[in-house]
Amino acid sequence: MIDGEMKSSADLSREHATATRRYFLQRMGISAAGFCVLPLWANEEILNPELQARIQKLAYLTSTEAFRNVERHRPLPYKLPLDKRLQYGLERETWKLEVIKDPESNSRLRNPLSNEEGTALDFPGLMKLAEKQSVRFLKVMTCNNIADPLGMGLWEGVPLRDVIWLAKPDKNIRRVFYRGFHNNNPKQVFQSSLPIGRVLEDPPGEQPIILCYKLNGSPLEGQRGGPVRMIVPEAYGFKSIKWIQTIFLTNNHQANDTYAKQDNDIDSQMKSYARFIHWPKSVKAGNPIPITGVAQAGMSGISKVQYWLQPEKEDVPSGDPYFSKADWLDADILPLPPDWKPEEVDQPLSPIQIDSNQQPREWPLRHTIAHWAALIENTPKGNYVLRCRTIDRNGIAQPMPRPFQKSGGNKIQKVNLKVTG
Questions:
Q1: Which of 59, 68, 254, 418 has the least C-beta neighbours within 10 A?
Q2: Alpha carbon 362 to its chain's center
Q3: 368 forms bridges with which residues in the sheet?
Q4: How does pLDDT run across 34-51, given as a tens digit for each residue?
Q5: Which domains does the chain have, with CATH numbers?
Q6: Whole-Å CA distances, 247 to 156, 221, 257
């Protein structure tokens, strides 16, 4: 932490510029009309320079460069020389995808997509499918063992099921095993799996699992898993394998995920939680305290974001580990900014998320982020602990009912704040 701002992710310093600006102006009594003609936080009489500087950097989608990395390969595939990347199918020109039977299974495919038989799917073949079957949706990438989101993206790809059907699966198939490029060291293999039913059909209101080739309207770069990676909308990042090259259809009922062998819950969907982005480390009594943050809308969604400012010297009530009886106050969940969509995206987004007027069908959207803000006023001198949490769409305060790290983190975050005389 540096000066009350979370620095673990470059992107978490980026919020909704338009929405956040409008929020604080409205809270301070500035009209919408006045807001429209003001330059971006240029009026130092309205807000302090510290807040201006932070909000100048805000945005909704995370740029490719700002995504946080969780990397395990050595050497990293995207850092190999170009001739090696071409040799290993890590560029669009040479990428191929196999869809074959698990060699240890009695599964049967009538048209396997195989390198050996010269029938593997290449990138032009994937783009041919994309002409009619591409989808675009918003999803936050997050790790079940890291407290903060890795980045928020607009992902584009072809539903995995459309490629699997090309292989004409016939019988004895219960799961889909898949892995990306790796070197010859068995310890470098990174793989995951899904039940075949989830691949072939989507629950109501859910996005399809896709073979992704674009991020935020631009070709997927090697650092982000390109030329093609898996994206599983509801899952933590380890399900969205990078540099995807091989898919096995199997009759095995057990998962083969790398993380399963590392004692993680591989089936939990993303959880809902709130995190701080900015809060002043110290503020003078009588001044309003602006706080902002990010909320991840997981499986159970989000109906509220709340904060609690507690004097540091007050005891935490015993027998209430999740502070359910604390004096929580509602923050404002900021809307999707009107200029959020990348210029490169000129085709419709997923109608499950976005309507014909380019507005979200619900907000926040599940499996994405939203930003939130609050202005705390009339705070006496003293040292304080500031906490934030979410209320899901079932009316349940998170991190309940799943506070276990192995199934993904959603603990109540706390930070320190000092009000001086």
A1: 254
A2: 17
A3: 297
A4: 323 222 223 333 354 555
A5: 72-262 (3.90.420.10), 271-420 (2.60.40.650)
A6: 19, 21, 13
